[in-house]
Amino acid sequence: MACPSLTALPRECGAAGVLGGLDLVYAMAWNDAENVGSTDLIYAVTPTDVVSEIGVKTTKMFVKIDQLPGVAGMNETLTADRTKGQAYFTQTVTLVNADLSTANRKWITDTMTQPIIVIGRTRNKKYFVAGLDGQLLMTTAEGGTGIADADLNGHTITYTGAEASPMRLVDPTIIAALLLPAP
To answer: What predicted TM-score, i.e. pTM, was given to this entire model?
Structure first.
């Protein structure tokens, strides 16, 4: 396969104020997804590689995962071994569930042994998705009551998975149709 020619990479207008972190997080069990149309993928992308559809089983939806400000994030790292012709991205999603509640305990037990899909909205209002290939799994859950007043009373949870391509941008117009209505 021939490699593509490169295109210019302009800096987006207003990019000087780009902020890190997520201000909204949604998640769904990977097993609640279904293939889109007659493909063998649970998602479809536009010609510019933006996710335009995520297949969701009829009675299943993404749920909102409330987070404290400035604690949730999505990151990725490229690993390439040119001697083996391999390259993949390790995607990492970090969530902080504040408080040692039964709901937070249930979240941990429900997601600790199954792959999930996470959609995160950046503080710059762009949506990204991780886990579309069914590889995003909980790798750590660390927490407790803390000792000092300022210590976390809750859990920091990390999900990690490998995918062949970087996290994809999600078309914001499809988000509402993917969400479970708020209780």
So the answer is: 0.89
